[in-house]
Design a protein that fits this description.
By secondary structure, the protein is of the alpha/beta class. The chain has a single domain, classed as P-loop containing nucleotide triphosphate hydrolases (Rossmann fold), CATH 3.40.50.300. The strands form two sheets. The protein has a six-stranded mixed β-sheet with strand order 6-7-8-3-9-10, sandwiched between helices. A four-stranded antiparallel β-sheet has the order 2-1-4-5, covered by helices on one side. Strand 4 and strand 5 form a beta hairpin. The protein starts with 12 loop residues before the first strand and ends with a helix.
Length: 251
C-alpha cells in the first residue's frame, strides 16, 4: 500500500517520471517535446540520456530537475513530488537536493574558485562539511587553484570547479547537461572520470544528457529518447553499442 504523499517508486529510485508530457504551443503548431515518458533512475548510478536532435532529452532533464514545468504527468525526487510544488518550494529543493553541471560552466567571474564552489550552499544557508570539502577538492585536483578567478583557469579546470560546486552539498542527484561540450577530449575525459568516480566512490547519483557516445560510455546505463518517447536503453554501454543503438533510431 502506498502512503499518501509518498512515492510509489522503490527506495532505490533517486528520481522518476510517470506519463511525463511537455507541449510547447497549441493547436496545429503544438510541439510535443515529451509525449508520455515513464522512466526511473537508480540511486548511486550514472545514467546518460541520449537521442537524436529534437528527441526531448534536454526537456526531460529540465523537467526532472525542476527547471521546467511539465504540461502533465508526475516527477518524483525520492519521496517528493516535484510537479505539485510551488515555485519557492522548487527553488529551495533545487538548492538543497539537486546539483547541476552545465556545458557553459556558469561560474561568476567576480568570485574565485572556492567562492564559486560554495555559493549555492551559502544561498541555501548551509555550511560545508570541511572534511568532505577537502576530499572533493583533493579528488578534483583544485587545491592550488582555489584563489584563482575563472578567467585564470583552463576550461577543464573551470568545469572541475563546477563539478565541485555540484558535489559539495551532497545532493540527491547531480544533473549534467552536455558537461564536456566546451572541452577538448583530454579535459572532457577528465571531467567524465570525476563524475564516474563520484558514483563509484561516494554512491552519488548522476544523470547526464549528452550527444557524444564516448561520453555516454562512462555511464552504467543509457536511456534513449526519440520524438518525445522512451525508445529503449543500453545497459553496461560501450561506445560501439551506443552508436549501434542510435543508428537504430536514425540518429
Amino acid at each position: 500500500m502506498t502512503v499518501p504523499g509518498e512515492s510509489p517508486a522503490s527506495l532505490s529510485t533517486a528520481v522518476r517520471a510517470t506519463d511525463l508530457r511537455k507541449t510547447y504551443g497549441s493547436g496545429e503548431t503544438a510541439v510535443h517535446a515529451l509525449a508520455g515518458v515513464d522512466v526511473a533512475f537508480e540511486q548511486g548510478a550514472f545514467t546518460a540520456i541520449m537521442g537524436p536532435s529534437g528527441s526531448g532529452k534536454s526537456t526531460l532533464m529540465h523537467c526532472l530537475a525542476g527547471l521546467d514545468a511539465a504540461t502533465s504527468g508526475q516527477v518524483w525526487l525520492g519521496d517528493t513530488e516535484l510537479t505539485s510544488l510551488r515555485d519557492e518550494q522548487l527553488t529551495k529543493l533545487r538548492r538543497e537536493r539537486i546539483g547541476f553541471v552545465f556545458q557553459s560552466f556558469n561560474l561568476l567571474p567576480v568570485l574565485n574558485a572556492q567562492e564559486n564552489m560554495l555559493l549555492p550552499m551559502q544561498l541555501a544557508g548551509q555550511r560545508p562539511d570541511r572534511a568532505w570539502m577537502d576530499s572533493v577538492i583533493a579528488r578534483l585536483g583544485l587545491r592550488d587553484r582555489l584563489q584563482h578567478r575563472p578567467y585564470e583557469l583552463s576550461g577543464g579546470q573551470q568545469q572541475r570547479v563546477a563539478v565541485a560546486r555540484a558535489l559539495l552539498p551532497r545532493p540527491d542527484v547531480v544533473f549534467a547537461d552536455e558537461p564536456t561540450g566546451n572541452l577538448d577530449s583530454h579535459a572532457g575525459a577528465e571531467v567524465l572520470g570525476l563524475l564516474r568516480s563520484s558514483v563509484r566512490e561516494t554512491c552519488q547519483t548522476v544523470v547526464m544528457v549528452t550527444h557524444d557516445p564516448v561520453a555516454a560510455a562512462y555511464a552504467d546505463r543509457v536511456v534513449l529518447l526519440a520524438d518525445g518517447h522512451l525508445a529503449g536503453e543500453v545497459n553496461q554501454p560501450t561506445t560501439d553499442s551506443i552508436i549501434n543503438a542510435l543508428r537504430g533510431l536514425g540518429a
